[in-house]
Amino acid sequence: MTTLLKEELLRLARILLIFAIPGWLLHLSVQASFLGLFVYLALRLRSLHKLHHWLKTNPHEPPPELSGIWEDIAENIYRLQQNEQVAKQNLLAIIARARTSISALEEAVVLTDGQGNLEWWNSAAEKLLGFKDPIDYGKPIINLIRDPVFIRYFEHGPYNEGLKLPSWTHPNRYVQYEVTRFGHNDRVLIAYDITRLHQLEQMRKDFVANVSHELRTPLTVLSGYLETFADSEDLPPRWHRAFKQMQQQSLRMNNLVNDLLMLSRLESDVVKQEPKPISMPILLEKLRQEALAYHADKEQRIVVKVDSPLRLMGIETDLRSAFSNLITNAIKYTHARGEITVRWSHDEKYGYLSVHDNGIGIEPQHIARLTERFYRVDAARSSETGGTGLGLAIVKHVLLQHKALLNINSKPNNGSTFTCIFPREMLVD
Q1: pLDDT digits (tens, 9 = 90+) for 25-39
Q2: How far out from the chain centre does Cα 239 lie?
Q3: Selecting from 3.30.565.10, 3.10.560.10, 3.90.950.20, 2.60.40.2470, what CATH number does the domain 276-428 have?
Q4: Cis omega before residue 134 (within 30°)?
Q5: What is the pLDDT of residues 238-257, one digit of tens each?
Q6: Separation between Cα atoms, residue 90 and residue 392, nearest integer Å
Q7: CATH of domain 204-267
Q8: Which of 13, 228, 245, 419 has a Cα-to-Cα distance from 270 of 20 to 30 A?
Q9: Count of alpha carbons within 13 angstroms of residue 99, beta-carbon side
Q10: What is the SS3 assignment for 253?
Q11: Which CATH number describes the domain made up of 105-193?
Q12: What is the reported pTM?
């Protein structure tokens, strides 16, 4: 039993005793006890009324004079209120400092509520996105940034990657948008001015495309003369080996130029071809026949398994190039008489094109970087196989065009599985 409860019981006992003695003398003990209990309750109700009046009118002022357990309750309430007030002031100070810091950022920062209405933005958002305070406060952000691509990104995501778009307020400028969801569908939008980066990237693309295109003609001429000389019967025997090596290197350079041109085309903003339904059994059988002719001396077994009757919607030339790169890589890095399995299947959500081999495999630390341009797991091994280092980069860009992903599963000396994962919407009967 707590001390306060003991004190309250003692107070009740004293009041009852005060009334019990006169009642006993007057032979009215029961009536006196009820009267004492009534007085005790009246005093407690009076204290309760004071406490209620204080909480209702001046809860931030010191509590009124009370006694017993009511005094302790009032003091605890007042202490909790004081602590809450201090915590609130500290929180407001933190928020103020955070807003001051965010306002100083060069990036635009925007907060929206659960309905996508503007709640707060920093000064950079006014410059970059054209928001005006307080005119735009509470307006839906999609009413101000009306690009359909942005609206779709803001409302549905996915938010794991940013969105690059031309600025809707400043011509010839580009903005990168990134959205983070928190709370009850509240969102933070961060926008960057990436005009300079966009220009540098465009310069790089133009340079690669132009140089690759300009190299094509002289390479064709060189390859033609090399082939002529290599097949000439009048050529001294000691020159045959040199011309064969030059032929091999010119072919390798020609493949590199072709891959660079294809990457440039995939990255460009020109109008893409219309996707058409592709019969996977026919496409995969063609790829199998081509693969059998590639490194035929290795005598590998190439198996095609079609577990789905569905067709794939896409651009056949690009998909054929991507799938061919995966099969060619499997051939290169699988030992002689090894086995390569190409499988087409689907489930309720996705379609899968997988290429599995029992080759040399890949170390885990390399897997995340395999789709980078010119990335080499082993430079010496890549030189031996004659690869350009662009095959998986092409695969990645083709899959991005088709809303697909590339999954890589591999272990050293246990082979590799490259799986192209297509959304169900890309599959048709």
Answers
A1: 677 777 777 777 777
A2: 57
A3: 3.30.565.10
A4: yes
A5: 787 787 888 878 888 887 88
A6: 53
A7: 1.10.287.130
A8: 419
A9: 11
A10: helix
A11: 3.30.450.20
A12: 0.59
